[in-house]
Amino acid sequence: MPHSHTALRPIQELPDELISQIAAGEVVERPASVVRELVDNALDAQASQITVRLNAGGIRLIAVEDDGSGIPQTELVLALRRHATSKIHSLEDLEHVDTMGFRGEALAAIASVADVSIASRTDTQKNAMQLHAHSGELAPVARTVGSTVEVREIFFNTPARRKFLKSEATELAHCVEAVRRHALARPDVGFTIWHNGKLVQQWRAAPGLLFADAQQQRILDVLGNDFMQSSRNITDTETKNSDEQPAYTIGPMRISGRIGLPDAARTRSDLQFCYVNGRYVRDKLIGHAVRTAYADVLHGHKQPVYVLFIEIDPALVDVNVHPTKIEVRFRDPGSVHQAVVKALQMTLAQHRHDTPATGLSEPVPNVFSPSTPAFAQVRQTPLPQNTSAPPLNARNASGLHRLYPQQKPLHLGNALGIAEVRALWSNSSASTESVPGVNVPDASPPSTGEWPLGKALAQLSGIYILAENAQGLVIVDMHAAHERITYERLKTQLEARALEVQPLLIPASFAATPLEIATTENHHELLQRLGIELTVLSDKALAIRSMPALLNAAEPVELARSLLAELAQHNTTELLEQQRNEVLSTMACHGSVRANRQLSLEEMNALLRLMEATERSDQCNHGRPTWRQITVRELDHLFMRGR
Ligand code: ADP
Ligand code: MG
Fold first, then answer.
1. pTM, whole model, 2 decimals?
2. How far is the CA of 41 from the centre of ligand 1 (A)?
3. Cβ pair 40, 324 in contact under 8 A
4. Are 530 and 494 in contact (CB under 8 A)?
5. Does residue 133 line the site of ligand 1, with CB under 6 A?
6. Which positions ≥6 away from 385 have C-beta within 8 Å?
């Protein structure tokens, strides 16, 4: 047995090179990790301009050039050594880290899995020196003050890890994302990214601007106008109308940045940027605090968008808990949690009280619709007289409002009309044969309560269908129900390889991120199988040309975006069954009737019959129930009617 042999080997100290390679496993996951570490170093060296050059998605070359302090010739060799750093010297320093790096292991780790050279010049040196890590060769080169670190052929000596790399487009997208994270936090520094000799991104520093203004400008440059329009500065009431940078300050903590309005929430967490003392972090505690703040205005599976900067006394946070420093530990997690919740809630509340007179350009809805950007505002204020829907407070009382998702804007022409229900209805007759024991029901409204889900009585609040069956009252969440039906039908069609695809009359083009474009390229066939035809128009734009006929109520661009976000999470182009189901449920959500859609009794009955004919229709895809029964007995109990 080969295994018993290995057990008998004597204990040995590992060679240095191997130690670094093992450490590299934690620090260097892919080219983007190298980009992050090198940009960290450039920022620590006080650079004001950082240029990142990549070849083949960073797999062949990553070069990061800065105009920072440079490394003295005599220290070049040290820079590449494990646990060699200029940033801390004592345990006490470790407790007040104000640099991005401090562990002194990044360059050593990178040099153990790639071909590295450093060229650097300080302002006291006449010329720059270049050190080649592997050969140890040191030679003069021409360059101005600052450093250039070149990393070639990542994982060349660890083929197993090289195999884990994705396509060039995907790796490039991750590299760009790594720089973007830095760029958001450092508006005082200019960033430029080149790929295969072409300029990919440029974020200019805006010298002369106040930091707060530069920050707004940078957020606009990096995240775009859509984000600016649909987000607000974090403020507390005191700073709202002052000239100070808007922020929420409490004790040793200051929270600033921009948070998205509820309506801007997305299916994925791809627009969530959180920084602690300028360091990009992923922190469960902060994530939880954010969700708590949004709990009232966002359905659970929607992800808010935000750029959050938390400044805190460095002594109150431990940054040395993770090799890549992406996690932090707070000395007093409770107060951080509380502060974040408070800051966000205050900001969201102020937005609710905003009127157009405050200068915020927001449409004021003239009819009630939970889909309008001012949804949150409507919830707080009495409804206009001309609406038939009751105030949402009525629902708040029961807590049921959490059962329906935050709505997207309604699109004219997307109504679930009688014709559509009928079409859905007649289509269903084909598939119901595969459901044992289910007969194709009669589309005409039943006159008795003998249907399992009963006979429709009315629609409540634009959201619920009320029906009466033998047991009593049936309440149906019509969006959830429709979603489930669409989902099952998508699945059936897909499994039967009979997905009905509908070309769009006018292909919809839209601005796309590098990651979205990479995902389109990687998953092209899969998308096609899902009935979505996406074409790459340029390195910044995509067009959607077709989608499943079942989803004709969906907004094509939104559908494409959330599908891409979903697929970007999956490494392989083949989806496992469960993943595929998640993707289908995302699609179904987009294709389903929105709340606040007036249905006729006939349409309601049709929906009830479809539900009965659809497998598992008592739970929507997000695990929410699609209907509830309230028995006459329960009603009696409610009214203390002793029967
Ligand atoms: P750390 O950043 O944790 O100190 P690194 O391995 O990333 O460890 O870098 C080692 C040292 O090399 C740094 O402490 C710094 O002194 C020096 N160094 C690395 N990159 C640069 C740079 N771009 N400009 C100036 N000094 C650098
Ligand atoms: Mg470093």
1. 0.62
2. 5
3. no
4. yes
5. no
6. none
